Amino acid sequence: RRTPSANDGVDINDEKIHRVFGCELIQEAGILLKLPQVVMVTGQSILHRFFYRKSLLKYDVFTVAMGCTLLSSKVEEQLKTLREVIFIFHHMYLRRKKLKMKPLELGGQQYTMWKNELITMERFLLKELGFSLYNVMD
Predict the structure, then answer these.
(1) Cα four-point dihedral sign 60, 122, 132, 28
(2) Is 17 helix (H, G, I), strand (E, B) or coil?
């Protein structure tokens, strides 16, 4: 069966690169958040399940990885707050873009935008996966 990304004309190697990138983001965020490995694996499984249903052309891997990290911390009962996840992903974003490290202002415009994106993505992940998350590893 072809993935939605392949149906949209995304090369199979490009899809693989983007999926691996998403998994690397989740792994790095999990380490920085001091989460157990099982949380990171759950997040990576959620990411793969999501992109088996939705196209990479329609959803940003970075935002999906951020949502998967938050959601997997809840599923595995190692809860991290929205604020913690946003701050870690913001730090990772700045470092990957080689931008000056500058703290994200809590309640600022950029923080609010990222918070709204994260909440929306988490809800969308839950909806797309039919709220079925406890059998992720089966």
Answers:
(1) positive
(2) helix
The runs of H, that is alpha helices, within 33-81 are: 37-51, 61-75
Q: How many residues does the chain have?
A: 138
pTM of the complete model: 0.88
- Can you tell me the distance from the alpha carbon of 59 to that of 81, in angstroms, rounded to the nearest whole number? 23
Per-residue pLDDT at 85: 96
29, 67 Cβ separation under 8 angstroms? no
How many other CB atoms are there within 10 angstroms of residue 32's CB atom? 14
Q: Is the pLDDT of residue 82 over 50?
A: yes
Backbone angles phi, psi at 122, to 5 degrees: -60, -45
